[in-house]
Amino acid sequence: MNMTCDQFRDLLIDHVEGELIVDVQELFEFHRTRCPNCGAYLESYHYTIRITRKLPGPPLPAEVEARLRESLRPHLGGGD
Amino acid sequence: MTDPLPPPADADDPGPLPDAGSPVTPEVVFRDYAPRIYHIARRMLGNDADAEDVTQDVLLQVIRKLDTFRGDSQLSTWLHRVTVNAALAYRQKRSNRQRRETTEAADEVLEMASAAGPVKRWAVGPDEPVLAAEQAAVIEKAIGELPVPFRDVYVLADVEGLPSAEIAGILGLSVPAVKSRLHRARMRMRDSLAPHFEGGIAT
Ligand SMILES: [Zn+2]
Fold first, then answer.
1. Structural domain boundaries of chain A?
2. Residue-wise over B101-127: b if at least 16 C-beta within 10 A, else e?
3. CA dist B139 to A2, A51, A55, B134, B190, Å?
4. How far is the CA of B145 from the centre of ligand 1 (A)?
5. In this structure, which residues have their CB less than 5 angstroms from ion ligand 1?
6. pLDDT tens readout for residues B122-149
7. Residue A2's pLDDT is what?
8. Radius of gyration (C-alpha) of chain A in whole angstroms
9. Which domains does chain B carry?
């Protein structure tokens, strides 16, 4: 049974989580190797996830930290 | 999943978080969690001042209940929940005040490139991506443009790295609903990033 491009896209999330059952995974791979559009789509979908994961959690801006420490001062003492 | 770089060593740094069972002090909570709370709230609310208010509220709640936590992982889960709830409540308050917030319809339609059109291959290698500053700005902007229900799930799943089950618990959704939103958010993000990463047409 062939898989359509729409069906392929619907399965992407389960594919990247490794949650497709074996039979479906085979159909998925079959479609991927024969459909350049879906092959390129899968790569870019996966890349989107991986590069988003690289977003830095930048440090707290210094002035934000200073204001927060000031307002929380009664609670922060006596730690460490 | 990769860990963030460790913070630089510092003479005043009391070291990593204590293991489960050790007491976590308010100062440790502030140092280790305030940035995460702030950035989740900032991405969810799209506003620095609101994120600061939420961060203060959440830290206060966490510090007050600190002695009820037995370890870091339990604290981390609870903290995500409190942060998201505080951000959602803040957003609700703000929309009541301004009456101009976008719809929160759970199954809002997301415009997506059709599966029928040609897909350009991205000019990226197979290696782990390296994030340049201009790419980070492009991604942050695309996240900010996601409709709210999709943005929440995307931030928690793909920025923060929380599992779908945990997000489902936090947002009061089923796991399939979380995955459906996440999938659509990712496709929309892919479309937004595509012009910045595309190379030639796939052949
Ligand atoms: Zn296809």
1. 5-75
2. eeeeeeeeeeeeeebeeebbbbebeee
3. 35, 9, 8, 9, 10
4. 28
5. A 5, 35, 38
6. 988 777 888 888 899 999 999 999 999 9
7. 82
8. 23
9. 26-97 (1.10.1740.10), 120-201 (1.10.10.10)
